[in-house]
Amino acid sequence: MPAQLIDGIALSQKLRAEIAARAAALTAQGKQPGLAVIIVGDDPASHVYVRNKVKACEDAGFYSLKDQYPADLSEAALLERIAALNADPAIHGILVQMPLPKHIDPHKVIEAISTKKDVDGYSVLSAGELMAGLDGFRPCTPYGCMKLIESTGVNLRGKHAVVIGRSNTVGKPMALLLLQANATVTICHSATPDLGLYTRQADIVVAATGRRNTLTADMVKPGAIVIDVGINRDEAGKLCGDVDFAGIKEVASHITPVPGGVGPMTITMLLMNTVEAAERT
Ligand code: NDP
């Protein structure tokens, strides 16, 4: 039987309605959630991402602040602006769109954001909180993947999850979140020999490599849940993920499509973290 699709668009809509209700309750108490998005330079893709984030904020009833600067903004000026936003009570989340121009150190910038407002969950302190099982903000993409996995109704306790990819923004936090949910977790990466040896044992596979066809049907255990984080293009220029969707949907029990799976969840979890940040104040 072909796998059930895990619909990231439908789940996003449901979660965004819940977030909007929480935002309305906060606004009624005079504490409208506020997200500041900073963009430096004129990278066209970054402008599209920022536009989507601003629109999502407005749709959810948030206060949305877009700070746009020319590419020659100095690092000191950016750090000063972040300090001001850290102190601004109308702002509960701060996001700096990457990439930044070369003369600005992205690490310095991320670390300048108050942990209380680090709704991307990218700072070293937020990563440490996740590692220690504390209540910090979880990076949005892996957090969204967890929601997609939970939506299948699976109990992760004792299940074997394999994460392919070990980036700081996706692979590593994904593995920690699965571990917190009591899965047994294996992390694979580009130096893993015989990837299939691990994935064939997995009840859940999360693929986050940015390489097409990293996972094929012969590498998947029948009935497994497959989450595809990748965003790639095929020879025809069509959007596709990291997994061979057509083949794997005949083997897996559940699978996320690309587009329409993990993608829509990332902004949704940014909204979730921001409303949470406002509730904590
Ligand atoms: P990175 O390039 O930072 O990391 C990729 C990881 O995959 C690395 O750990 C790398 O291993 C590993 N890898 C690469 N090739 C292979 C392979 N053949 N076999 C096993 N492991 C491999 O990417 P990100 O984590 O930032 O993103 C991954 C993908 O997810 C990208 O396509 C990105 O566009 C997409 N993405 C999608 C989002 C969404 O909202 N849908 C959000 C964020 C990312 P090593 O460490 O050894 O190099």
TrEMBL record:
Subunit composition and interactions: Homodimer.
Task of the protein: Catalyzes the oxidation of 5,10-methylenetetrahydrofolate to 5,10-methenyltetrahydrofolate and then the hydrolysis of 5,10-methenyltetrahydrofolate to 10-formyltetrahydrofolate.
Record flagged with keyword Amino-acid biosynthesis: yes
Family matches, as PROSITE patterns: THF_DHG_CYH_2
Organism: Rugamonas aquatica
Signal peptide: none
Family to which this protein belongs: Belongs to the tetrahydrofolate dehydrogenase/cyclohydrolase family.
EC number of this enzyme: 1.5.1.5, 3.5.4.9
Keywords: Amino-acid biosynthesis, Histidine biosynthesis, Hydrolase, Methionine biosynthesis, Multifunctional enzyme, NADP, One-carbon metabolism, Oxidoreductase, Purine biosynthesis
Protein name as annotated: Bifunctional protein FolD
Cellular compartments per GO CC: cytosol
This protein's pathway: One-carbon metabolism; tetrahydrofolate interconversion
Residue span, Tetrahydrofolate dehydrogenase/cyclohydrolase NAD(P)-binding domain: 139-280
Entry keyword annotation includes Lipid metabolism: no
Name of the coding gene: folD
Tetrahydrofolate dehydrogenase/cyclohydrolase catalytic domain span: 6-120
GO annotation terms (biological process): L-histidine biosynthetic process; methionine biosynthetic process; purine nucleotide biosynthetic process; tetrahydrofolate interconversion
InterPro entries with a match to the protein in the record: Aminoacid_DH-like_N_sf, NAD(P)-bd_dom_sf, THF_DH/CycHdrlase, THF_DH/CycHdrlase_cat_dom, THF_DH/CycHdrlase_CS, THF_DH/CycHdrlase_NAD-bd_dom
Binding-site residues, NADP(+): G165, R166, S167, I231
Any one Gene Ontology molecular-function term assigned to this protein's record: methenyltetrahydrofolate cyclohydrolase activity
SUPFAM superfamilies: Aminoacid dehydrogenase-like, N-terminal domain, NAD(P)-binding Rossmann-fold domains
